[in-house]
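ok trying again, last paste got cut off:
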Amino acid sequence: RNCTPITERRLPMEKTLALCCELIRRESVTPEDAGCQALMMAQLDALGFTCSELPFGEVSNFWAERGTDGPILVFAGHTDVVPTGPPERWATPPFEPTLRDGKLFGRGAADMKASLAAMLVACEEFVAAHPDHPGRIGFLITSDEEGPAADGTVRVVQHLQDQGKAIDWCLVGEPSSSSALGDVIKNGRRGSLGAVLTIKGVQGHIAYPHLADNPIHRALPALHALASETWDQGNEFFPPTSLQISNINGGTGATNVIPGTVEVQFNFRFSTEVTEQQLRQRTQDILRAEQLEYALQCHLSDQPFLTPNGALAASAVDAIRDVTGLQTQLSTAGGTSDGRFIAPTGAQVVEIGPINATIHKLDEEVLVADLPRLAAIYKGILERLLLGKN
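nice, full thing came through this time. structure:
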């Protein structure tokens, strides 16, 4: 059955589900917001937050804040979702939130409209119980996380810095859990360095190899050396740095022509044990050792970041244990998140959200029972950080 509108009277334990349904109904395919942020700001305004829209380019963003002094806990997230793929391949329409077998289905259910709903409900319940709470609560929301991420969180963070506003703690609602809610939280992410390598040769007839120079043949030893290299050993928070080749393009399409060039695309996911500059230099050293004529273009997407210890991680671990009974695992695995733009400001950053098994897939889903529990986890973190609750 489809979810009922949030305007209907619902039991407290169902508030997060109802709000999540309302967010899923809005077809916010990146960079579109489709009214999600207006819905969120209306809820926050009713709780006494001061909301500021911060559009940049085609991207919708907003900053909201409650309280005037003391440390601030910021909830960060995104309203945009990835495209659905062929809608006819979904069991039910992707933007019609549907309940089935204890699960809520819809694009964005797990990534990350469940988290956005849980953040709002957690704040509603926290403010109702503690209207004059110490400290501050913030929201940093964008519609540009699933896209280029050029006019979203990175621009809002710069705006906040220009205004002299600093973030103490940031809870990002990315779907961090693996098999059960709260079993994994992200306290950092690996860096990402992409590369396009063009190896040059001499084009010629395949029957006259002595008159040509096959760049594919020349590339093979170099690629083997790059793929076999131990870049670092990792550390207690990060696995060893990994290089993965994603694309190799060469040839004219004809079977009797030796190509003049071959292009190889690869990516480093790297730990804090090695720097971007070191990866570039060691790659160049390997290529030069193979005596290649080449061009190398590198693009840094993300620096690694880490929140190893501190009040935020400790509060998250305790809140998860109280709500779920689980001893959570701190992890830096997976892709990237907007936490990469916030952590360099000096903020403590963790990512906590629902199970991520179906994100970006057809029939994306979240467990209905996890929705109020996620709100309870967020509320528990608020209580620990702002009220000093143990």
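cool. Confidence is low (pLDDT under 50) at residues 4-13. The longest strand covers residues 191-200.
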